[in-house]
């Protein structure tokens, strides 16, 4: 790891000020991706601003018909939350399947979505559940937040403070993890709203990160059953293709994972 | 430089290290506790798992500075007096190791998993799923799983006896 300067922020305003002062500063929000990247010398931020000790960024609470999760809340906390398990079981299940237990004790929802790894699990939940991301500057929809592989709408000095998930009538996530890395090669989050409308979001497979599948959404809106999506395949054109799997293979996985997610949600 | 102070295995320790120093380096090199192993450079193997404020974490994927003000337990902190922790005893009894390199991380992960699920509440499938972040290249995991199951049941028995 190259040299860096560690700072522990006491508040969001403090973190923003520390970030503004730094040459090439990065927020440290669990560090389960950032630190391994730095160890490989693939990243060399001059300063790290640790936001995980900021009280206002932590915790899960009910906010009307939604659940608001602080940006520095760990995956383990989301997975174990009775509120999340009761209102959006698919989200609790997803959080409990990220990485491994030790990673879930450190990794946070804010860190994960700000990194927007194309194989990360959370982006699919945010998009399928139509979540709202709040930063220290503004509020934006999940679809506006994720803009491409490792790219978000965040400004350099912008800090995610919370994510709000509207409760869903039904929700589930199914992923096919790479056998070695355990990252999703395709992960599908399915959410049905009280009015019967459905959103389907795919992670792990797209070249530009998370994406929705409108054909599956309309098919599931009229018939919420695994069979409804069994015959729908996504185009392989914009899917990832690498040593782990071709784009055609991933396209097939999307259909299979969609079926499994619908089955788990039913 | 970062001044780092923590309670390590019940003892207050402190040191001045570079900001980039990993917690595992602080524990091994600054504090001389080499029971915590480094098996990979990619945060995947879990040989360095320790407990920070009661939670299993990878000491190679955390800066020493992040652990300032915390309570840390490593493998060396498990045994009480001359008595092995039930998980350590079970790994010996069931031969849950061959070369032993991954064992510190396995044992710390196992203690954490038993605490989270409650003693006696672990089945084989759960144990295998929970071990996703701990790699063993010798055993094929069979005896590790057996040891953790036995320790979990043993600890449930000890709890009942105490009540």
Q: Which of globular, elongated, flat, extended, rod-shaped describes the shape of chain B?
A: globular
Instruction: Give, in spatial order, the strands making up the sheet with the most strands of chain A.
Output: 4-5-10-6-7
Based on CA inertia axes, which overall geometry of chain A fits? globular
Order of helices and strands of chain A: EHEHEEEHHHHHHEEHEEEEEEEHHH
Number of strands of chain B: 5
CATH topology of the largest domain in chain B: DNA polymerase, domain 1
Largest sheet of chain A: 5 strands, antiparallel
Contiguous uncertain segments of 5+ residues of chain A: none
Spatial sequence of strands, sheet with the most strands of chain B? 2-1-5-3-4
The number of distinct structural domains of chain A comes to 3
**Quaternary class:** heterodimer
Radius of gyration of chain A equals: 18 Å
Distance between the termini of chain A: 47 Å
Question: CATH class of the largest domain in chain B, anyone?
Answer: Mainly Alpha
Contiguous runs where pLDDT drops below 50 for at least 5 residues of chain B: none
Relevant CATH superfamily of the largest domain in chain B = [2Fe-2S]-binding domain
The number of E-state strands of chain A comes to 14
Mean pLDDT value of chain B: 96
- CATH architecture heading of the largest domain in chain B: Orthogonal Bundle
């Amino acid at each position: 790891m190259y040299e860096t300067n560690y700072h522990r922020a006491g508040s969001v305003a403090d973190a923003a000020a520390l970030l503004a002062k730094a040459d090439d500063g990065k927020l440290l929000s669990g560090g389960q991706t950032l630190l391994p990247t730095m160890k490989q010398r693939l990243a060399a931020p001059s300063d790290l601003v640790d936001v995980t000790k900021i009280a206002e960024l932590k915790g899960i609470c009910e906010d009307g018909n939604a659940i608001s999760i602080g940006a520095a809340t760990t995956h383990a906390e989301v997975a174990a939350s009775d509120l999340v398990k009761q209102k959006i079981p698919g989200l609790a299940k997803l959080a409990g399947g990220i990485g491994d237990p030790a990673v879930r004790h450190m990794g946070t929802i804010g860190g994960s979505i700000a990194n927007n790894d194309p194989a990360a699990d959370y982006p699919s939940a945010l998009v399928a559940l139509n979540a709202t991301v709040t930063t220290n500057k503004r509020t934006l929809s999940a679809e506006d937040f994720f803009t491409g592989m490792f790219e978000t709408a965040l400004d350099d000095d912008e800090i995610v403070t919370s994510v709000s998930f509207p409760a869903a009538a039904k929700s589930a996530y199914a992923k096919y993890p790479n056998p070695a890395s355990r990252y999703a090669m395709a992960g599908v989050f399915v959410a049905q709203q009280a009015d019967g409308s459905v959103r389907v979001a795919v992670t792990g497979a797209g070249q530009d990160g998370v994406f929705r599948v409108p054909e599956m959404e309309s098919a599931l809106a009229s018939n919420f059953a695994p069979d409804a999506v069994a015959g729908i395949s996504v185009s392989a054109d914009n899917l990832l293709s690498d040593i782990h799997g071709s784009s055609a293979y991933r396209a097939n996985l999307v259909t299979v994972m969609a079926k499994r997610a619908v089955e788990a949600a039913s | 430089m970062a001044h780092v102070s923590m309670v390590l295995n019940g003892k207050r320790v402190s040191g001045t290290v570079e900001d980039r120093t990993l917690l595992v380096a602080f524990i091994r090199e600054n504090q001389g506790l080499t029971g915590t192993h480094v098996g990979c450079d990619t945060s995947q193997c879990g040989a360095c798992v320790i407990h920070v404020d009661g939670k299993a974490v990878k000491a190679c994927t955390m800066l020493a500075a992040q652990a300032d003000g915390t309570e840390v337990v490593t493998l060396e902190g498990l045994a009480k007096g001359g008595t092995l922790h039930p998980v350590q005893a079970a790994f010996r009894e069931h031969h849950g190791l061959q070369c032993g390199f991954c064992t510190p991380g396995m044992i710390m992960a196992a203690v954490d998993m038993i605490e989270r699920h409650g003693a006696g509440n672990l089945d084989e499938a759960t144990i295998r799923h929970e071990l996703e972040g701990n790699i063993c290249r010798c055993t094929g995991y069979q005896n590790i799983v057996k040891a953790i199951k036995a320790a979990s049941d043993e600890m449930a028995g000890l709890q009942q006896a105490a009540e």
